[in-house]
Write a structure and sequence with these properties.
By secondary structure, the chain is α+β, with helices and mostly antiparallel strands. Among the domains are: 157 residues, Transcription Regulator spoIIAA, CATH 3.30.750.44; 106 residues, PDZ domain (Pdz3 Domain). Helix content is 35%, strand content 17%. It has 20 helices and 18 strands. A 6-stranded mixed β-sheet has the order 9-10-11-14-15-18, sandwiched between helices. Strands 1, 12, 13, 16 and 17 form a 5-stranded antiparallel β-sheet that branches. Strands 5-4-6-7 form a 4-stranded antiparallel β-sheet. Strand 4 and strand 5 form a beta hairpin. The longest helix is centred in the first third of the chain and has 18 residues. It is globular and about 70 Å long. This is S41 family peptidase.
C-alpha cells in the first residue's frame, strides 16, 4: 500500500542500544485547550479516514467515546504525554494500524527490562541485559497474573491494529519497557515497586520472576547474535549480496521503500509535498553529505535507483546460474509500493503485474487535507467529463471493485492502463519498461521471502505480489492486513503539538477471502521449536530458508 514517506517504525528497532533515561516535559496544558485538541482530532478522523466507525461499533459508539474522552480530562489539565495516553483509545477505536499518534515523550527504560520478539502468536525474550541473561529465549506467559491473550486485548484498545500480529508487535514494542505504558496496560501494578512475570523455558518448565521497579540496569542489551552477517543498509535501504563462493544463492535485503529514486520521481509528479527535504535526506543517507545542487530533479537523478539495482541483480544471477533468491523483508515497514512492480517486472514480467493487480480495489476519501498533501490535481480537473461530479469531502470509486458483480469485465485492460499511468510518472523505470530489454530476464528456481510481524504497509505489498507470483514465504505473518486502510495524511494538534497520521484510502485485495484479507499465511512458519533449534539466532528466518532450499551457508 503506498504510504508516501511516513514510516511507522517500531520502537524497539531503534531504542534498545542504550539505556538512557530522558526527562519529559511535565507542564500542564489547560483543559479548555485540550477540549479543542480532542475536537480537532475527532474532526480530522471523520474528515480524512474512509470509514472511521466500522471497527469501533458505529458512529454513535465513536461519539460516545469522544464525549467520554472530553468528560474525563481533569480540571487541572494534563501534560502532553498524559494527554497522548488519554486520547489513544479514541484513535485506536478506528481499528487501523495506519492511523496513529506519536508519543511526545522520550523513551525511558523504567518498566520491565525485556526486549521481546514475536514467534507464532506468542512473545519471547529476544534481548536482555547481563543480569537477566537467564531469561533469554523464554516465552512470556503472563504479567502480574494477566495472561498474554488478555494483554493483547488491552493493547488493541490502546493502539489500532489490523490483526493479532500487529497487537503482538505493538505489545512487544510499546507495552512493557516504559513504566508509563506498563501502568496503563496493567493497572494491577500501578504504584507497586515490583512486578511478577511468568515465563516458560525452552524445555517447557514454567517459573515466575519478580522485577523490582524501576530497574537499575547495569549493562547494555544482549541478544543471541547471529551466525550470518547481513549486507549493510546504512547507505541504501535495498542491497544484495551473493552467499557463498558458488553464487547459487543471493540475498536481497530491502529494509525500506522510502529512499529509492523512482519513488521520489512519482512523488514529484503528484506535486512534491515535502519532496525537497526528504530527497535531501535520502541523498545525505547515501552519500554522507548534503546535496550541493539545489535543483530537485538533479538531486533525484543521483539517488539509488531500484531500476538499476534490480537490473544488476538479474544480470548477475543469470550469469552465475543462481538457484535461489532470498528477499529479506523482515524490517520493511513501508514506503512507496511501486518498487514491488519494478522487481516483479525483472523476475516475472509485466503480465504477472497485471494479473495480480487486476482485481484490487482502492477507494479514496477526499478531504481538504487530501488535496493539500496527496495531490496537486484540482477537483475541477478530476471532475472533467464526469456525469456525476465528485465532492471535496466525498469518495472516489474509480478504482473500486470489491465483488464479482462490480468488477469490470475489462479488469485486465484497466490494470494495464493504471500501470502505464504509474510508469509514466517514473522516468528512470519508464526507459527500461518501454524498451523491454530486461523484462522477465531471469527467474531463479526458488524465490523466497523472509517475513516478520514488522513487514508492514508497502513491505507487505511487495511480499504479497511476490507470493502471488510464486515466491514462498518463510517466517512470521505480517502485522499488515491485505484488506486495510493506508496512504496516510499527516497532522499536528494545535495545543498539545501531538502529531500523527491518518489513512485516506481503503484497499481490498482479497474481496472473497476475509481471513486471508486479515492475515496472509506464510508457507513455512518459524515455530518456537525451530527458533530454539537455531539458538535464537537473530537471523533464524534466513537460516530456515537456507535449510529448506538446500544451502548451508554461514559467514563470519
Amino acid at each position: 500500500m503506498a504510504k508516501f514517506f511516513i514510516q511507522c517504525a517500531c520502537v524497539f528497532t531503534v531504542i534498545f542500544n542504550c539505556w538512557v533515561i530522558v526527562a519529559v516535559d511535565d507542564d500542564l496544558i489547560k483543559r479548555e485547550k485540550l477540549f479543542k485538541d480532542v475536537n480537532q482530532l475527532a474532526h480530522l478522523i471523520e474528515s480524512v479516514h474512509p470509514d472511521p466507525y466500522l471497527s469501533g461499533g458505529g458512529k454513535i459508539a465513536f461519539h460516545r467515546l469522544l464525549q467520554k474522552t472530553l468528560r474525563t480530562i481533569p480540571a487541572e489539565g494534563l501534560t502532553a504525554q498524559d494527554f497522548y495516553h488519554h486520547i489513544r483509545p479514541l484513535v485506536a477505536s478506528v481499528g487501523d494500524a495506519h492511523t496513529w499518534i506519536r508519543d511526545p515523550g522520550e523513551f525511558t527504560p523504567d518498566g520491565i527490562p525485556l526486549y521481546l520478539g514475536v514467534v507464532e502468536e506468542s512473545l519471547y525474550v529476544k534481548g536482555v541485559s547481563d543480569e537477566f541473561k537467564h531469561l533469554l529465549g523464554c516465552l512470556l506467559l503472563d504479567v502480574q497474573g494477566v495472561a498474554t491473550k488478555e494483554l493483547l486485548v488491552r493493547q488493541g484498545k490502546a493502539m489500532g491494529a489490523d490483526n493479532v500480529y500487529q497487537k503482538l508487535r505493538n505489545l512487544a514494542g510499546y507495552g512493557f519497557f516504559q513504566r508509563t505504558y506498563l501502568d496503563r496496560l496493567i493497572p494491577e501494578i500501578k504504584g507497586k515497586g515490583e512486578v511478577s512475570v511468568r515465563f516458560q523455558k525452552p524445555g517447557g518448565a514454567e517459573f515466575v520472576y519478580r522485577f523490582s521497579l524501576p530497574v537499575n540496569l547495569k549493562s547494555n542489551l544482549r541478544t543471541a547474535g547471529s551466525k550470518i552477517t547481513l549486507p549493510s543498509t546504512e547507505k541504501t535501504s535495498f542491497v544484495y549480496e551473493f552467499l557463498g563462493e558458488s553464487k547459487k544463492t543471493v540475498l536481497l535485503v530491502i529494509d525500506s521503500m522510502t529512499d529509492y529514486r523512482e519513488a521520489f520521481e512519482m512523488w514529484h509528479s503528484f506535486g512534491g509535498y515535502g519532496l525537497k527535504e526528504n530527497a535531501a535526506n535520502a541523498y545525505k543517507k547515501h552519500f554522507g553529505t548534503e546535496p550541493v545542487d539545489e535543483d530537485v530533479i538533479k538531486i533525484l537523478s543521483k539517488l539509488p535507483s531500484a531500476t538499476d539495482v534490480f537490473k544488476s541483480l538479474v544480470e548477475e544471477m543469470k550469469k552465475a546460474g543462481s538457484n535461489t533468491l532470498i528477499i529479506d523483508l523482515r524490517k520493511n515497514d513501508g514506503g512507496n509500493s511501486y518498487m514491488s512492480n519494478i522487481l516483479i517486472y525483472y523476475l516475472y514480467g509485466r503480465k504477472k503485474i497485471f494479473e495480480i493487480s487486476k482485481n484490487h480495489s482502492e477507494i479514496i476519501k477526499f478531504s481538504e487535507y487530501y488535496f493539500e498533501q496527496k495531490t496537486n490535481i484540482p477537483l475541477d480537473e478530476i471532475n472533467k467529463d464526469r456525469l456525476v461530479k465528485l465532492t471535496e469531502n466525498g469518495y472516489n470509486f474509480d478504482k473500486d471493485w470489491v465483488s464479482q458483480e462490480t468488477r469490470p469485465k475489462e479488469a485486465l485492460k484497466r490494470a494495464k492502463i493504471k500501470f502505464r499511468e504509474s510508469v509514466d510518472r517514473m522516468p528512470t523505470f519508464k526507459k527500461e519498461y518501454d524498451s523491454g530489454l530486461f523484462e522477465k530476464y531471469y527467474t531463479p528456481k526458488n524465490v523466497v521471502i523472509l517475513s516478520s510481524q514488522d513487514t508492514f504497509s508497502s513491505g507487505y505489498t511487495m511480499m504479497y505480489y511476490l507470493n502471488m507470483a510464486g515466491a514462498k514465504i518463510v517466517g512470521t505473518p505480517s502485522s499488515q492486513a491485505g484488506n486495510c486502510y493506508g496512504d496516510t495524511t499527516s497532522f499536528k494538534l494545535t495545543h498539545s503539538k501531538i502529531n500523527g497520521i491518518l489513512s485516506s484510502k481503503k484497499f481490498v485485495i482479497f474481496p472473497d477471502d476475509t481471513e486471508r484479507g486479515k492475515v496472509l499465511p506464510v508457507d513455512y512458519p518459524l515455530t518456537y521449536d525451530k527458533l530454539v533449534s537455531y539458538d535464537f539466532d537473530l537471523n533464524s528466518e534466513l537460516l530456515y530458508a537456507l535449510e529448506l532450499f538446500g544451502e548451508n551457508i554461514t559467514r563470519p
